[in-house]
From TrEMBL, chain A:
Alphabetized UniProt keyword annotations: Chemotaxis, Hydrolase
One Pfam family per UniProt: CheD
Protein name (record): Probable chemoreceptor glutamine deamidase CheD
Functional note: Probably deamidates glutamine residues to glutamate on methyl-accepting chemotaxis receptors (MCPs), playing an important role in chemotaxis.
UniProt enzyme class: hydrolase
Organism: Geothermobacter hydrogeniphilus
Signal sequence coordinates: none
TrEMBL record, chain B:
Taxonomic lineage: Bacteria, Pseudomonadati, Thermodesulfobacteriota, Desulfuromonadia, Desulfuromonadales
Signal sequence, renumbered to the chain: none
Keyword Hydrolase appears in the UniProt entry: yes
Protein name from the UniProt record: Phosphohydrolase
Lineage: superkingdom: Bacteria
Single GO term (MF): hydrolase activity
Pfam families linked: HDOD (PF08668)
Record has Magnesium as a keyword: no
Keywords, comma-separated and alphabetical: Hydrolase
InterPro entries tied to this protein: HD/PDEase_dom (IPR003607), HDIG_dom (IPR006675), HDOD (IPR013976), RNase_Y/CdgJ (IPR052340)
Domain HDOD stretches: 17-215
Length: 162, 293
């Protein structure tokens, strides 16, 4: 079974055995990962920006680009694939939201992405149970249907799980 | 390998690097001239049958979704703009160098080219915020070439990524550039400058390549351009278009505020615009290559 690879602004879910969902090089972007342990369904979204208000016309074409429009679509997708509409029972994890090295934290899109994602999750009663966010390195994230494990890797830093 | 012998070997690798085509060179010289016109660009393309064919293929690719195909080179160049024509000419001339896998940075084939292309669009968007006069398409070209030194340096960095990242985390070096210099006696910006000189690139492009991580060291007359590329490079890395192990391993230089009327509130809009333009350009160039093969 081939992996589902998400580009910037993509989201997807799968319950197919042998499948993994992967997204490359998050940078300041954030991946929100959802797992429904009851049905062994996994989902992920690659969010680039916190708020769709900067360009509402972009939403129709790629809703997953923004936290505010993307996360509701990921939830819909998870419900459709898993058949479990009790979204509060999903396990949620976060990765990404890195920043460039800058003591003044000027280009803080990463931090704002993480906060925007969390606010939407909190509003839906879904706080993340694990996260690997911030710092100054880019992350590639893989989640497996079979194990539910979330693996993060970065060139020069190896790989680890959250 | 001693630092001295490494530098010698790097210099030999620079000498052996592919040459930029005469037309790509001329296009860059024209772009750097503030008084140039689009007609100057069209004249060069018209005299080069291969470049003409490629420009027509790109403009008529599905990525631009034209209702009626364009068959005139004048219209094609007007539609694509000189930035895309320069991009096609550079890709034809030294695309193999820029598409190489870079094992030294743990980066796959094509990552450097995508990073450069994203940086080019982001630098062009940033250049719109210039406090002084600036040719925004020059920022595009500078963005496209700024990391060319990595294509040479990569093979000398083999197996060093973990140590370089560790040195930065431990504070032994300030950033990846410092790590490269400490390890081999030359960094990718210096190597890029050597290459830029051998390709006889205009001085502003040489400055952008040499100082994109240290814009305050650039000659005053080129500093605006260099800051545009500096920020474009950072935006590309933030957006996931880095070049492997060195992604985001550099400092932001706050000095840009003296040269650019850029408010960080504009950042999401610039990221969005650069992403859109990058996607379209990448699709049109990729389709062009597929048609060729």
């Amino acid at each position: 079974m081939s992996d589902l690879v998400l580009g910037i602004g993509d989201f997807g879910a799968s319950a197919t055995s042998g499948c993994a969902i992967k997204t490359y090089a998050l940078g300041s972007c954030v991946a929100v990962i959802m797992l429904d342990p009851r049905t062994r369904t996994i989902g992920m979204i690659h969010i680039a920006l916190p708020d769709s208000k900067i360009n509402p016309s972009k939403v129709r074409e790629r809703p997953g680009y923004f936290a505010d429009t993307g996360l509701p679509r990921l939830l819909e997708k998870m419900v459709a694939v898993s058949g479990n509409s009790n979204t509060r029972s999903y396990v949620v994890k976060l990765a990404g939201g890195a920043s460039i090295m800058d003591p003044n934290d000027t280009f803080n899109i990463g931090k704002r992405n993480v906060l925007a994602a969390k606010k939407i999750l909190w509003a839906n009663g879904m706080g993340p149970v694990a996260e690997d966010v911030g710092a100054n390195y880019s992350r590639t994230v893989t989640v497996s249907v079979d194990t539910g494990e979330v693996t993060i890797s970065c060139p020069g830093r190896g790989q680890w799980k959250i | 390998m001693t630092e001295h012998s490494a530098v010698e070997e790097i210099r030999r690798a620079i000498e052996k690097a592919p040459l930029l085509s005469a037309n790509a060179q001329r296009l860059m010289q024209i772009t750097a001239d503030t008084d140039h016109e689009l007609g100057d660009v069209i004249d060069i393309v018209k005299c080069d049958a291969t470049l003409t064919a490629r420009v027509l293929r790109v403009v008529n690719s599905a990525a631009y979704d034209l209702l009626n195909p364009i068959s005139s080179i004048d219209r094609a160049v007007s539609y694509l703009g000189e930035r895309m024509v320069t991009c096609i000419a550079i890709g034809d001339s030294v695309g193999n160098l820029m598409n190489r896998p870079m094992a030294g940075y743990q980066a796959a084939a094509g990552e450097l080219w995508r990073h450069d292309l994203f940086t080019a669009f982001a630098a062009r968007e940033i250049a719109r915020c210039a406090r002084g006069d600036m040719t925004i398409d020059l920022a595009f070209t500078a963005g496209l070439l700024h990391d060319i030194g990595k294509a040479i340096l990569s093979e000398f960095l083999h197996g060093s990524a973990e140590n370089l990242v560790g040195d930065i985390d431990a504070g032994h070096v300030e950033n990846y550039l410092g790590g490269e210099k400490k390890l081999l006696g030359m960094d990718h910006a210096e190597i890029g400058l050597e290459l830029a000189k051998s390709w006889q690139l205009p001085t502003p492009l040489q400055s952008a390549i040499a100082f994109h991580h240290e814009p305050q060291r650039a000659p005053e007359e080129d500093r605006l351009l260099v800051y545009a590329v500096h920020l474009g490079d950072i935006i590309a890395m933030m957006n996931g278009f880095g070049t492997g192990s060195d992604s985001m391993q550099y400092q932001l230089d706050q000095g840009y505020q003296d040269y650019l009327e850029f408010d960080t509130k504009q950042l999401p809009g610039i990221i969005l615009e650069a992403t859109e333009l990058f996607r379209q350009a990448e699709a049109s160039l990729t389709q062009n290559q597929e048609t060729e093969s």
